[in-house]
Amino acid sequence: MVVHVVMPLSSPVAGKEWIAQMRALAIPTPLEWARLDGIASMYSRKMVRGQSRWRGELRTMVALAVPVVLSELGWMAQAVVDTIMVGKLGPAAIGAVALGNAVYYTPSLFGIGLLLGLDTLVSHAYGRNDHDDCHRWLAQGVYLACIVTPPLMLLIAAASFGFVKAGITPEVALPAGSYLRILNWGTLPLLLYGGARRYLQGVGQVRVITVTFVLANLLNWFGNWALIYGRLGFPALGVNGSAISTCVARIAMAAALIGFAWRYERTRGHPLFRHWAGPSLVKLKGMVRLGAPAAGQIVLEVGAWNLATFCAGYLTPVALATHSIALNYASITYMVPLGVSAAAAVSVGHAVGAGDLERARRAGWLALGLGTCFMLMAAVVLFMAPRPLIALYTRDPRVLAVGPSLLWVAAAFQIFDGIQTVSTGALRGLGETRIPMFANLVGYWVLGLPLGITLCFVLKWGIYGMWIGLTLALVVIASILLLRWRKDSTVKAVNA
Q1: How many whole angstroms separate alpha carbon 325 and alpha carbon 343?
Q2: Any domain includes 23
Q3: Is residue 466's pLDDT more than 50?
């Protein structure tokens, strides 16, 4: 049906009747059309601004995340290079390096975890443009590293003599013990590097961290090449040569990042050591208050996987070597969301420091999207090409027979691993570090590990059973942390 409406040209009464007729037919008047057009234009402009804001923040997140991801991959590359370089010595050498690293990283990462509070504290200070407070937090981080190093080194040294007593195969236990004792000397440089790195990330200076890792890995590779097999006149030290090379690389990393921090402070007219802050008990307590739960979360998570490695040592050298290789690949993929997690902590922290909690919420969700997308792609690669990936480490037919199925299990938990990792960083940016610790306690130690040990040793599923239990743990942890981030970020944004 076509309705013809004729607009009157003169009489005011007729004009009113015409407007009434228009409204009766649900046809907007010219004035109403103008209003609707203005409203549409307003919403269109808001939509464009919103899309532009999301795109801009995505670019900022990627610019921050990519160097941090490369840094995490560089961190992981040290262990991978060590494992690959000793691979020609046989499964026992691979297992010794894996076991030594597993025992070393549980206490040492606790020390690094104590320094994770710098992510929140430095990024908040930077967000409110308080650069002097950033500087003071770096100083407290150095003091804390020096305080915790001696007890950590004593603990690691004592653990290095316990492999044989724990029932580990002697061909693995003896070289693992000597490897761990040498690696222990790199603990203070490792913690100093951790403090300097958190400071540089918090002030947005992330590219220098990537450069440092590239150079450190080249140094580590050269040291392995020379010391493991005795080249350029050096003695052939086997796995001990690998440990020496790693220590030297960590000393270089610490020196480089402290040097970069000094240069950054100098460029803004505030020389680092000329205005070095003294120890502050209040600030140290604040750092530990944030860092202790983060350290607990790391110990619970890394300790769970290291206990799985320890349990694999009770199986066979082939099972231990296969577990170590699969764990290396899972750790490589994990480094990407771990880097995104650090970027999320900094981005959320900057926004919180600036008082823009809606931007903090967007930053967290953007980081979760980036991490999840990568882990989906990683799952596809692990599922589609497990045998070639195993062959990069070893051609041993026994390892090649067992390894592919273990990588399929790893593919199954990739997305959940990405979600729980990035959520932890986003919550840390808000200043929440306790919930991730409790989630890891429940996921790994109450549910995952007991199930894995039961499947592995009681039901005789072997190393596959252990990994199935760990997969369940990651599903539970990811669910808890994602729901917590959704709740906390929404409440803070609404209350802002």
Answers
A1: 28
A2: no
A3: yes
